[in-house]
Amino acid sequence: MSEKKKLIADVIKKNEGIIRLKPAWVARDFLPPGRRLGLPEGQYELGERGAICERWIGSTTKADNKISVPNEGLSVLDIESEEDITLKEAVEIMPEEILGAEYSKVHNSLKCLPKIFDYKFRLPYHIHQMQKHAKLVGCNSKEEAYYFPEDVDLGEEAETYFGVHPYIAKQKKYDVLLRHMIDWKDDSILQHAKAFKQIPGDGFHVPSGTLHAPGSALTIELQEDSDVFAMLQAKTGGKIIDKELLWKDVTEEDKKSKAEKIILDMINWKISGDPYFYENRHTPPLLINETKQDGGEEYWIFYNTNKFSGKKLVVSPGDVFVGKDNGVYNILVWRGKGLFAGLEIEGENFAKDELIITHDRAVKELKVENTGDRDLIIYKFFGPDVNPDVPFLKKYDGN
Fold it and tell me: What is the CATH number of the domain that holds 295?
């Protein structure tokens, strides 16, 4: 047995199937940070790399930034070791022990990426490529979903623009977006989209290929394990961003032969032009009646897809919640403190707020105790096909 495998096996055995993880911080250079991630003030700005704007959770995905930093975005196991062991390595070394014997036959990793994103201003209008386009640059598609936590400042631009006005898609007037990408001078491309207010305790589901410009609310996001995108908006946060972000995940051949028009081919016009986008993509929390207990309750907050799913667990002060799940998942302890299967947990404490629960432990009853004086709030993140009972919105077409 290799030294790394032994260390991983030992911690799984010691903690009865649970592994602590260290935070993974990710810098971006196209917008200033919102400074709501809990870091000391002097740790956000990173010079040429930009600033810390995101925290990735239970991540097996490498951040794809212009300035590459070893292991940026990859979660690291919180164990004593001479060198860091990433969660990606751990899953590759011990897939059955972490993912489960059956699950690991179909999925070679967690296949999802939870994160917190924290920007001072609204993100630029952009898409994440669908699989048929992402694979051309050796990447995966990036479907995603958002949840806006209730107890955080919303920032300066707390509205998200989604899609396009329906006539654009219905009449195939796609070129109305093209001139903005060619001119690359301002943010007027947003005139072709609809804005929705970001409401605390609310959320949205956003399939890949969907045009969107997320607002400034601190956001808990769950997505496919990818970092592909194409930025269509030239100006954001008062400055012009590098146009290379339009081409970040476009092949050189397509860029030369089709120029800005290639981006129009990558948009999911059916979803982006849906006149009932809100009704079909708005995902408020859904109480899970089957697990409701005197001491606590769970809500679906990421649903409407089989590519990932997520829950919010709330345990009242001094109370206990007992539950079990269908397979491997990881958690972020958002607020409060307590015990998770006997391990100390505490929100806003980077040494105690992130865990991965291996398959064999997840499918057994697990006790969560709130030892504090306020609600214990935990977000639970699952990869594809773990939860066959994940709810779906009923398709709305105006009738």
Answer: 2.60.120.10
